[in-house]
Design a protein that fits this description.
The chain is of the alpha/beta class. Among the domains are: 6-128, Methylthiotransferase, N-terminal domain (Rossmann fold, 3-Layer(aba) Sandwich); 145-258, 2-Layer Sandwich (Transcription Regulator spoIIAA), CATH 3.30.750.210; 383-441, OB fold (Dihydrolipoamide Acetyltransferase, E2P). The chain is built from 13 helices and 19 strands. It is globular and about 60 Å long. Bound molecules: S-adenosyl-L-homocysteine, iron/sulfur cluster and FE3-S4 cluster.
């Protein structure tokens, strides 16, 4: 390509897998495009979408509505929608939104340059929601300087079909990325000065299933944890049904593996779990938790919870509340059940009124807020390692990072610490974060 590069803006919604995919989009287009932080200057505006709840989808439509005005002012700007809503809606989205130039599905990222050429040549909008047979991403080689942590996708899709969930329909069947390519990508990141890696998949515990040439998930963890320079290893999301004894043992044996697991329980009621088709009951879940706590007493356990699943009674909901305290969770993401296209639960009888869902969510939040605060309070006075991620969102004079157990810590320190591991004394427990003091720093540090 000759001449200056064009400008690309990407707006990302949804989970960390979408964050990874957006980075991949920028990479795939890097021969012709450079990233901009100013949407109004973009030559290409991509939206990477999420469809997990109705609200996630509404956000995309409201952004598309606003973009109509930008497109009017700058008709040469191309607008593309990718990700899970694009996969779900495909052609319907193009028809509904006349100012769209491109709709591409969750398997289409590598075809982006070709699709854009088609749009530029023909001028007509392009829709591509085809699935690929094999999940192969060439190992990434470059990260921005000072980036201490990286996301690494290890699998795509999901075969579980939990009755509430749209993911299997928008991400396709489960496929594992070849282990060699994952290890190579992590090695490349470490060579660029990185310290922490989070492995991503909808159900990482079933990594390698059905591919004899791949390592199992615990084997992959062992290989990665042994790489020189890797200080921290994490993974998400892990399905409680498939949390094997071998994987639990990794928390006892691998020093790089962080003392944190995100283990979404969804409900504390075995009756509801069975209607969700989760494949475990309340006791199975608690048993896994006790095993984790036995091999790694410091482990922080976080979860996802859904309130108002069809047929959820007050007694079922009480069981969720009691489970939260029985574990107890260090933190939780909680959601009102949202009926999704194609999913079985959307057709179940006993759909719960919005007002009841909202009231249950508020009660649940009150309990989790208390638990999170108590978990933060227990850390006060301790000296902990923080991986510094950047400036704090609340106050730019402060740095922000995370503990191995994943809590956010804000403290005063100099710019050079970004991307580094620092010892911090925890001094203050807030609702969403901790406050601390970097050791070895003078004065107000
Ligand atoms: N693969 C992960 C979950 C990914 S989706 C797992 O199995 O644990 C992230 C979270 O969104 C889920 O854990 C669930 O709590 C929530 N979620 C998914 N579908 C939902 C729906 N239809 N309504 C409300 N919350 C939902
Ligand atoms: Fe959705 Fe269940 Fe798959 Fe998680 S395991 S992505 S909740 S279907
Ligand atoms: Fe959303 Fe798709 Fe992730 S539906 S949660 S962006 S896999």
């Amino acid at each position: 390509m000759t001449g200056p590069k064009k400008r690309l803006y990407i707006k990302t919604y949804g989970c960390q897998m979408n964050v990874y995919d957006s980075e991949l989009m920028a990479q795939v287009l890097s021969a012709d495009y450079t990233l901009t932080t100013q949407p109004e200057d973009a030559d290409l505006y991509l939206i990477n979408t999420c469809s997990i709840r109705a609200k996630s989808e509404e956000k995309v439509h409201s952004l598309l509505g606003r973009l109509r005005f930008l497109k009017k002012r700058r008709p040469q700007m191309l607008i593309g929608v990718g990700g899970c809503v694009a996969q779900q809606e495909g052609e319907r989205l193009r028809q509904r939104v006349p100012h769209l130039d491109l709709v591409f599905g969750t398997h289409g990222i590598y075809r982006l340059p070709e699709m854009l050429r088609q749009v530029e040549d023909g001028g007509a909008p392009v829709v591509d929601t085809d699935y690929v047979e094999q999940f192969q991403i060439p190992p990434r080689r470059h990260w921005p300087p000072g980036q201490g942590k990286a996301l690494v996708t290890i699998m795509q899709g999901c075969n579980n079909f939990c009755t509430y969930c749209v993911v299997p329909y928008v991400r396709g069947p489960e496929m594992s990325r070849p282990s060699g390519e994952i290890i190579q990508e992590v090695q490349n990141f470490l060579a660029s000065g990185g310290r922490e890696v989070t492995l991503l998949g909808q159900n990482v515990n079933s990594y390698g299933r059905g591919c004899p040439e791949s390592l199992s998930f615990p084997q992959l963890l062992r290989e990665l944890a042994a790489l020189p320079g890797l200080a921290r290893l994490r993974f998400t999301t892990s399905h409680p049904r498939d949390l094997s004894a071998e994987l639990i043992q990794c928390f006892a044996e691998l020093p790089a593996l962080c003392e944190h697991i995100h283990l979404p329980v969804q409900s504390g009621s075995s009756r509801i779990l069975s209607r969700m088709k989760r494949g475990y009951n309340r006791d199975d879940y608690l048993q896994r938790v006790r095993q984790l706590q036995a091999v790694c007493p410091e482990i922080a356990i976080t979860t996802d919870l859904i309130v108002g699943f069809p047929g959820e009674t007050e007694e079922d909901f009480q069981e969720t509340l009691s489970l939260m305290q029985e574990v107890p969770f260090d933190n939780a993401f909680y959601f009102k059940y949202s009926p999704r296209p194609q999913t079985r639960a959307a057709t179940f009888p006993g759909q719960i009124a919005e007002s009841i869902k909202a009231a249950r969510l508020a009660r649940l939040k009150e309990i989790q807020d208390r638990l999170t605060r108590a978990s933060h309070q227990r850390l006060v006075g301790q000296i902990k390692e923080v991986l510094v991620e950047g400036r704090s969102k609340q106050s730019t004079s402060q740095l922000s990072g995370r503990l191995r157990s994943n809590q956010v810590v804000n403290f005063t320190g100099s710019q050079e610490l970004i991307g580094r591991l620092v010892q911090v004394r925890i001094e203050q427990a807030c609702q969403h974060s901790l406050g601390g003091r970097a050791l070895g720093c003078a004065g107000s540090c």
